[in-house]
Each structure stands twice: as structure tokens, then as C-alpha cells.
Fold this sequence. Notes:
This protein is mainly beta. The chain has helices at residues 3-17, 209-214; strands spanning 23-27, 31-33, 39-47, 60-63, 69-75, 78-83, 87-95, 98-106, 109-115, 119-123, 130-131, 133-138, 143-144, 150-153, 159-161, 166-169, 173-181, 184-194.
Amino acid sequence: xxxxxxxxxxxLVLVLLGCGPARIDLEPASVQLHARGQSAVVHAxxxxxxxxxxxxxxxxxxxxxxxxxxxxxxxxNEAEVTANGHGRAVLRCEVSGVVAEAPVTVTLVAxxxxxxxxxxxxxxxxxxxxxxxxxAIDAEGRPVRGRPVVTRCQDEAVCRGxxxxxxxxxxAGTTRVTIAVxxxxxxLPVRVLEARSAAARPRRLRVxxxxxLTAPAR
Length: 218
């Protein structure tokens, strides 16, 4: 029976070595999401001790906090990470007890700070917009940079907004402007005063266009 250890020991070693990868590489190594419902794809590559890929190994994906980010397996060793709420989570890929992790950061805008709090505009000969100072702030009170600011006026006969955080005067009157960043909104009152020269103001018709068309020729 002395031959048994010699015959079984190498086979046992081969079985142990074949149980799983030596490591798992994730690409990208971290994920940053900036809006609820936004998603990103992460690819896992299980590798042997030699560094060679092991394509037959399949990840079991999970998230440390589903309230922040959820994960679903999209294709073989690819996962789709979706933002659910503000905060941080860890994406995990596990193959035969070997685990790789990637941090996931979801930064959502919680409120807006807008300056000024009231907008007084003058309608002049050369139309020019007024830019608002808008600061987006997350749930932890930190500023959120690089988000587009969209403005729109409730009465576009008085003013109009744009996708640059500006307000354009259109006609004398009062209305309100809505400022939006990533679905979070703020409002402020707007007043537009007539300041155009007489030459730049639209001419008033003494008779209606219909009367002009139906008037008898002289």
C-alpha cells in the first residue's frame, strides 16, 4: 500500500490548484455615478497564478449596499452597476472563494443655492442674458461640481431660460424662473423692466392687419 500516497498526492495538488483563480482583476477599478438610475459596466478577469486568464470561471456579483448601488450580471463576467441613492458601496466579484472589490461612489444633488434670490432685468436695445450663480450641494453638504444648470421661465413672454444657467429678458412684466440641476429645482421671482429706446421698441399698429387688407384701394 506504499504506492497510494505517491499516486494520489499529485492528483490532489492538481485538483486544489484547479479550484479557482489566484486573483481577479476588475475594470474599471472604481465606479463613480452622478444621477439616480445611471449605470456603468464592470468587467472581471479571473487569472491563474501565472497571470493567464481563466475564462471558464464565472463571477458571483454582489453589492454591499443595494440602497446606494445595485448590480446585475449583464454578460459573462460583466456586471451592470446602477445608482439608487447617494452614498458609497462596494461591488464584489467572487469566484471559488477568491474575491475582488471595486468601490462605488454615487453623488446626487440634494439642493441648490441660487444667487441672487430675486432677479430684476432690464430689456435694452441689445439683448443680453443674466447669469445666475448656482451651487449644487449633495446630501452631505458638499458642493457638486460640473453639473449642467438649466433655466426656464414660467411666462416666456417675460423671459426665457437656457442650458447655461442664464435668463434672457423678453418683455416687461413679472414671472418666475425655475433652475434645475440633475432634477433638483429651485425658483425665484423675475421682474423685467422696459428700457429700450423708442427706435428699438416694436411699432404699434394704428389699425389691425385685417383692416389694412380689407381697406378699399384709393
